[in-house]
Amino acid sequence: MSRHLLRSVSIGVILALLIVACQPAAAPSGNQPSGQASDCKITFGAAVSLTGKTAKEGGYVKDGYELYKDEINKAGGFKVGDKQCLIDIKYYDDASDPDTSAQLTEKLVTEDKVDLLLGPYGTNPTFSASAVAEKYEIPMIEGGGAGVKIFDRGYKYIFGTLPAAPFYLRSVIDAVLAKDSSVKTVAILVENDGFSQEVATGAEEYAKEKGLEVVYKEQYPSNTQDVSSLITAVKAKNPDMILGAGHAADAILIMKGLKDQKVNAKAYAFSVGPTSPDFRKTLEKDADFVLGIGPWTEAMKFQGTDVFGTPQKFADMMRAKYGEENYKTVPYQAASAAAALLAYQKAIEAAGSTDPKAVREQLAQLDLQSFYGTIKFSPEGIIVKPMGVVQLNPDGKLYTVYPADAANGEFLYPAKAWDQR
User: Fold this and answer.
1) Could you give the CA distance from residue 112 to residue 349 in angstroms, rounded to a whole number?
2) If you average pLDDT over every residue of the chain, what do you get?
3) Which of 65, 127, 239, 285 could form a disulfide with 185 if both were Cys (CB 3.0 to 4.6 A apart)?
4) CATH top-level class for 167-294+388-420?
5) What's the count of helices (H) and strands (E) in the chain, helices before strands?
6) pTM of the prediction?
């Protein structure tokens, strides 16, 4: 990670805190625009992981895109000059594969002739797909990739609605230290992929800055089904805090392993997973006390003039559309995806056009208060936005516990030992 880019993003996050205190077949494109009278149609294209390792997260991204599409079309669509335009989205399934994501993004541009691009889920697919967007000089706003490597190539057409990966777990460290200054040791388990490595490196550096000792840090292969040897090594180190830098499936696998070997820590936290409805559904009571992070939760006190207005309303509309059983907890990936389309709406309306270069210029200038908080991009295209901390509590609910001005529940600490639950 370049020092210039880290400095740029670091300054942006500080300002934000002050402000807020085999090619797969095409997937169905979802509901078509509602058939209302309109002067035009704007078509977005997205290659998203609907199968493969990150299918769950990719599904959240698609659901966020679809909810925004449906709600904005009900409201009349985008105002483009003197026209009112409904929107549509063309999807392909990239099967969680970076090369496939790039190939399908090229197909969206050259064969499907989409107007503008939405991003995949995951750093590696976004890294590959964004090169296609840059090649054709078509903006891509993505709500699923946070790796700095996406943004440090000097590209002008990529914008992301997730904070930079190295900052993901820093707020967890802050939250734990605010609760217990006696914490001294940390263990970090890392998936062997670009995003997770950036998360882990950022967490390790920040932990050391805060005077903590990283007693164990080890990688495991993507798609692994066995982390038992790593869990054994962690147990021998007896860390105060265990951090996981990976994806939802990994977080579930690690928590199962920690329980199996009775590895007790004061705090457990993961970069991805705890905000996912499947995390609680799969682990049930074993998910209690686990911490997660996110740039958005439904408890946050953001206010916008968009079709959602507040985080709570967005979450309620997700449940109304997709079912309480599927979105008892609404993950930030869905909100991040919807925010990408909101950013497009404001940029297109300001440009009075869907011309890619004109839209790109407006995105670079965007400074918007919304249901997702402030939507504003650094010169590299990364959103300027702090992370909140959430916790799964024994009452079965997910609470925002940090920072204090966003909290709607008490931070339960330390986590109970396995034999006391």
Assistant:
1) 23
2) 92
3) 239
4) alpha beta
5) 12, 15
6) 0.84
